[in-house]
Amino acid sequence: MGKKKESISLIDTFSEFNELKNIDKATLISVLEEAFRTVISKSLGTDENYDIIINPDKGDLEIWRNRVIVEDNELVDPNMEIKLSEALKIDEDFEVGEEVTDEVPLEHFGRRTILNLRQTLSSKILELEKDNLYNLYKEKVGEIVSGEVYQVWKKELLLLDDDHNELILPKTEQIPSDFFRKGEHVRAVVARVENKNNNPKIILSRTSPVFLERLFEQEIPEIADGLITIKGIARIPGERAKVAVEAYDDRIDPVGACVGMKGFRIHGIVRELRNENIDVINYTNNTSLYIQRALSPAKINSITVKEEEHRAEVFLNPEEVSLAIGKGGANIKLASMLTGYNIEVFRDIDEVDEEDIYLDEFRDEIDGWVIDQLKKIGCSTAKNVLATSRERLIREADLEESTVDEVLAILRYEFEDEEDSEEFDDSADIDLNEAQEPEIEDDNVEE
């Protein structure tokens, strides 16, 4: 009865563990058998002559030992051999040299051995569960999963999936305006799975472009069906994103299909991303056209693409420059990310003042990288810079205040010199005129 109770207890304990941790019965049986054989080997030196039969459905476990019959005075190893006198008690027909199989109760191994067996089983099943969790989520990298917020920490969220597996959403992978409370459900994409010291860690992300791509696949049937393909995505999480799409069927308008009637389809995605502004554009293999579309809503006059340098120079009317650059430089940054080209914006040359000076002519006085930063926001000439507010130069060109002040001083000094020389010329003209006036008066007198 003791043996039966012990065996049922072992099977029941780990059957419950199986249900909670989603380990199949075949694997559980294999783990149980391996654990028993390990204990027998440590206790008796070998497990070769033992058969272990496990039936989890009945909660039954049996251990059978095989021994060879020897003469009573020839017994050397009680684990591998049995005396003839003992064998005859089992069956009167047994003879020396034959093999006897008898069942061994659990208590035969001692209470300490059984406790060690429980610990071994627990360790093996925990290890197996970690392997299963790692393999399960390794296959889900790039997929959207949902979890309930279990714990909110300063640097990360701890989520639990439907099977109570732990998922991590770091602060760096959250949209800046994300705010979650305990018990809320959160959707995110599986970014990566780490496995240090056999301790799997599932990292989620809501800022990854892949998250936006999967949301499009869920919300837009034509993308899920393969009629429309996403060719590229660029994101500034929580602020703005650009998505390039292409349809294999000319009868399908890919942009219209993604946006939906009155923006119905894309609105759900925008809400999920905390009102992230999403621009959907038509993809094209024509690099110049692709860059023009990527800079939408700005209207471009002309573009020069330098394929070898992966750089593009875009010329626009002055009123279009701010649209091309966007708030905080977001539009041009996303366009560069989407197309893979470093885009520089210039005011159209026709609009440039004849007395204006290109910034490149100041490279002896201003560092080249500073000039490059200014050109990226559409300030290609001295007067462009002077016409732009100091705050905007600091913010959008990403320059230090002292650097901006130094640049402004250099440029103002250039034009002050010109104004001074013009004033001097004007005054000289006035003096000449004044000198001539008396002569005219004298002529009048003579007349």
From TrEMBL:
GO terms for molecular function: DNA-binding transcription factor activity; RNA binding. Pfam families: KH_NusA_1st, KH_NusA_2nd, NusA_N. It is found in: Cytoplasm. GO terms for biological process: DNA-templated transcription termination; transcription antitermination. One of its GO terms (cellular component) is cytosol. Residues 142-207 form the S1 motif domain. Belongs to the NusA family. Monomer. Binds directly to the core enzyme of the DNA-dependent RNA polymerase and to nascent RNA. This is Transcription termination/antitermination protein NusA. It comes from Fermentimonas caenicola. The gene is nusA.
